[in-house]
Specification:
Helices cover 33% and strands 24% of the residues. The chain has helices spanning 14-27, 81-92, 120-145, and strands at residues 44-49, 52-59, 66-75, 99-103, 106-114.
Length: 159
C-alpha cells in the first residue's frame, strides 16, 4: 500500500460513499472533479485545511469498501525520533476518531472505517476531524522537533 493507501476498489457500497464525499465537497464549495487525485481511478480526492492537505479515499479491503482519510504532516526528524514517537503516542491518547501514524519517514493523521453503515454526518465529522488535527499539529511538530513539513515537492527546505 502506498503513502495514501491507493488501491483498486470494487463497486459494492462505494457509489453511495462517493456520493457522500461529493456532498461534503459541494457544501464546502469545492468541485469534486477538480480535487480528484490522478491514478486513484475515481476514488481519491484532496482538500486543504489551513496548512494541511487532506486526502480522502474509498478503497477495497478483504471485508469490503473502506473510507480512509489521511493527512501527511512532517518528515520524521533525523535526531530525537524516540522523543517524537513518545509525543505521538501521548497525543494519540487524546485524539478522537483519528490517530497519528507513520509511513516510511512521514508522520500522518489517519482515520479509517468500513463504508458499510456509513452516514453523511459521520463522513463529515471524520474528514473535519482529520483536517483539524492535521492543521493543528503540523507546524507544532515541525517546530518542536526541527523536522521538515511534508510537501509533495521533494525539496529539502522547510515549507
Amino acid at each position: 500500500m502506498g503513502l495514501f493507501g491507493t488501491q483498486k476498489v470494487n463497486k459494492g457500497l462505494t457509489e453511495e460513499a462517493v456520493g457522500m464525499v461529493d456532498n461534503y465537497f459541494s457544501r464546502r464549495g469545492l468541485d469534486l472533479g477538480k480535487h480528484q487525485i490522478k491514478g486513484s481511478e475515481g476514488y481519491g480526492w484532496w482538500l486543504t485545511e489551513g496548512s494541511a492537505k487532506v486526502y480522502v479515499f474509498i478503497q477495497d479491503s478483504p471485508n469490503g469498501a473502506v473510507l480512509r482519510i489521511t493527512s501527511p504532516l512532517v518528515h520524521l526528524p533525523e535526531k530525537n525520533r524516540e522523543l517524537m514517537y513518545r509525543k505521538m503516542l501521548d497525543l494519540n491518547a487524546n485524539l478522537s476518531s483519528c490517530a497519528l501514524a507513520t509511513h516510511e519517514n512521514i508522520v500522518l493523521v489517519v482515520a479509517q472505517r468500513p463504508t458499510l453503515g456509513l452516514v453523511q454526518e459521520e463522513l463529515d465529522e471524520l474528514v473535519w476531524n482529520v483536517a483539524y488535527v492535521a492543521d493543528l499539529l503540523d507546524n507544532k511538530l515541525a517546530d518542536e522537533f526541527q523536522c521538515r513539513m511534508y510537501s509533495e515537492d521533494p525539496s529539502p527546505s522547510k515549507a
